[in-house]
Protein 1
Amino acid sequence: VLLNLRPLLLALLVLTPAWGWRARVLNEYQNVPVIETVEAETLEGAKAVVEEDPFASGGKAVQLVRGGTPISHTVDLVPSTYGVWLYARVKGSKVMGPWPPVVIEMIVRTPDGNEELSSQRIAYQPMYQVVTRLFFTVRRQGECRISFAVGEGSKDSILLDFIEVRDELGECERRAVKQGRHMVDDVSLARI
């Protein structure tokens, strides 16, 4: 009987620390300030491709397919570097593969009229998680239009649950890196 329990005990020993590690990473290292969270079904152009999904946060997700209509969102931003985190999954994907390519394209129109294209192959997930983070820089305050589509070369579609717009420099700006002297004490400084 003990020999039959060995795989179960081994799995418990391996999975418990992995879950704890993931929770710690999410709490400590992903503390980039969220500017806005937007459900995918509220994005411009999404109404035609909304589908019921019990796994999505609001019970609905947007299916993005190659050659389909891009969906977009407009947000007012100040100068900084931003990340757009996409929470999605690939319907019917398996943890062990196969994983045909899915490429996400993001086009950002900044307040100064420039358009910036980012394209990235995403990680397959059978459940909703961050599948990619795409970045852009805003040099002048104003409205930015962010559009998403499944790019050329994709062999599958994705279900998008929601996006987060994050200020990647939000915790860094306007704070001094050094809060005091570290290499020279008051006596040494007086002698200089």
Protein 2
Amino acid sequence: SQDKSAVVALVLESGIALAGDQRDLLPALLRPLIRAGDYEQARALAVASGRLDRRVLESFALTQATTDPDFAPLTFSLHSSEIAQARLIEEGRLGVEVAPGRLVTLVDRITQLPPGAYVMRQSLDVGLLEQSPRVEWVLRCAPGNAPPVWQQAVPPANGASAEPLALTIPPDCGLQFWRLVVSTPDGQKPVRF
């Protein structure tokens, strides 16, 4: 841990770009910083790498940059397993497939947004599904296992404009832990949306 801190300090002070051959070093340095709660140094390292614009850390849109796995969990982590998959299919649009009768976390992220009122606009286009899945954002403050300070289901819109989802980040919520949780109805086939 001290060795990694020294390496991070060296990278930050020297201005070494973590690209090309050094690209694999970045996740190995970022993740221990996050686990140790050193979010500020992790953010500084991500920006100093030369591969992440600081504005990406403040953006909540689903884009190539905000879903770059090298910077997770500073960017969105899109989870995939044998029972569930989440992938970016175009800027601002997530493709999801979940096995029937499951409750899974498909997306998570840590942010450091200032306290205040926010509005999230998202729509859930479930097409012609007989039963809609439940899709819900959950926000916790540090530590990440604290009770949620905000939970909101994303209402099915089927192509209609997104309903605004109002939320407030309290003043004592310096770090935010976000999860997108999906619950699918029982059935025979995976749910795709």
